[in-house]
UniProtKB/TrEMBL annotation:
Catalytic activity: 2-formamido-N(1)-(5-O-phospho-beta-D-ribosyl)acetamidine + ATP = 5-amino-1-(5-phospho-beta-D-ribosyl)imidazole + ADP + phosphate + H(+)
Family, per entry: Belongs to the AIR synthase family.
Upper lineage: Bacteria, Bacillati, Actinomycetota, Actinomycetes, Micrococcales
Keywords: ATP-binding, Cytoplasm, Ligase, Nucleotide-binding, Purine biosynthesis
Places the protein is found: Cytoplasm
Protein name: Phosphoribosylformylglycinamidine cyclo-ligase
EC numbers: 6.3.3.1
Statement: the UniProt record of this protein carries the keyword Metal-binding: no
Enzyme class name: ligase
Pfam families: AIRS, AIRS_C
Gene3D superfamilies the UniProt entry points to: PurM-like C-terminal domain, PurM-like, N-terminal domain
Location, primary (coarse class): cytoplasm
Domain PurM-like N-terminal: 60-166
CDD domains per record: PurM
Length: 379
């Protein structure tokens, strides 16, 4: 029997030393996110968090969420720019947690790649750490996996998970929402991290390159498409603090009722899932102008308006549902924090008057709750 050449892990395409170098390059950025509750340093088998720092909670609920950034990573890979994807990942995860009223405590990440390039992995994780810092969330651990043969050398995907905490009697949700409540829009920073399969298809069919300078955008197409997802956690928590969820009697007060994170499915589908059955969110299209990138995608691909609205955020990344008595003050507060915001619409009883409207959405994403409908024309 002829002896075969020795097969090693390295010859199979996995470079353990490269992974170690990546950890060295990223660990200072990770440490910078650590809060008082984090136990231990970087490199352990598991991230540890000391729950005794939460001892003053009366009846705490834990909230958890996991997500990725979808095919936006293909844009980052094509441009060889990797430090912004981390912001996208954090935003997609922690802003799903804050809609419950929970404060995200810690996060972990997972990166799968065809070949570990330490500098590239470190760029991705630095971006995640920056995003965590913006959200006030500790990055307590992660994993980088090298998958040769499954992914090409320049390919990677990212995912993350986070855990937050909220008092049981301060949990936000549809049960708090009332007829007459006001919807407040918080501007998106761009496409965020949803709908890139549509966007990439449009630009490919049009034959546009990512390096193309686009006057309407004031920069290249690639720069626009890589604009990081805006992270709303700190702004939402500030609103909750300024306009308490509960009144003095412990019941729903004149404050924040809930939030809707506008991600996959667009504005209507995500708004409907945070409203109670029997109500409808009436969204006034004339309250805002669709940003240039969304108009460009629609025109370039002849994408029907309904399809755009079901796929992209169209300039609204987060919605707050608030008591009408605090609506103006909430808008003013958000704008003072540098987050463009405006009154988007209202919550009304669903009498059936809008159910024949083609834009009417009810029971979205498996939630048999309220409804939402977009009315009028965009500004």
């Amino acid at each position: 029997m002829t002896a075969n050449k020795a097969v090693t892990y390295a010859s199979a395409g996995v470079d353990v030393e490269a992974g170690d170098r990546a950890v060295e390059l990223m660990k200072d950025a990770v440490k910078a996110t650590h809060t008082a509750g984090v136990v231990g340093g970087v490199g352990g088998f598991a991230g540890l968090f000391d729950l005794s720092v939460l001892k003053d909670y009366r009846k705490p609920y834990l909230a958890t969420s996991t997500d990725g950034v979808g095919t936006k990573v293909a844009i980052a890979q094509a441009l060889d720019i990797h430090h912004t994807i981390g912001h996208d990942l954090v935003g997609m995860v922690v802003d799903d947690i804050v809609v419950t009223g929970a404060r995200p405590l810690f996060m972990t990440d997972y990166i799968a790649t065809g070949k570990v390039v330490p500098e590239r992995v470190a760029d991705i994780v630095r971006g995640i750490a920056e995003g965590c810092s913006l959200a006030g969330t500790a990055l307590v651990g992660g994993e980088t996996a090298e998958h040769p043969g499954l992914l090409a050398e320049g390919e990677y995907d990212v995912a993350g998970a986070a855990t937050g905490i909220v008092e049981a009697d301060e949990l936000l949700g549809p049960e708090r929402v009332r007829e007459g409540d006001v919807l407040i829009a918080m501007a998106s920073s761009g496409i965020h991290s949803n709908g890139y399969s549509l966007v990439r298809k449009v630009i490919n069919v049009a034959g546009w390159g990512l390096e193309r300078q686009v006057d309407e955008l004031g920069r290249t197409l690639g720069e626009e498409l890589l604009e990081p997802t805006r992270i709303y956690t700190a702004d939402c928590l500030d609103l909750i603090e300024a306009f308490p969820v509960n009144g003095e009697d412990g019941q729903t007060g004149s404050g924040i009722r809930g939030f809707s994170h506008v991600t996959g499915g667009g504005l209507s589908a995500n708004l409907a899932r945070v409203l109670p059955r029997g109500t409808v969110g009436l969204v006034d299209r004339s309250s805002w102008e669709i940003p240039a990138i969304f108009r460009l995608v629609g025109e370039l691909g002849s994408v029907p308006q309904a399809d755009l609205e079901r796929t992209l955020n169209l300039g609204v990344g987060m919605i707050a549902v608030v008591d009408p008595s605090v609506a103006d003050a909430a808008v003013e507060r958000l704008n003072k924090r540098g987050l463009p915001s405006w009154v988007l619409g209202t919550v009304e009883a669903d009498t059936g008057a809008y159910q024949s409207n083609a834009d009417y959405v009810q029971g979205a994403k498996g939630v048999d709750g309220g409804a939402a409908v977009l009315l009028g024309n965009y500004a």
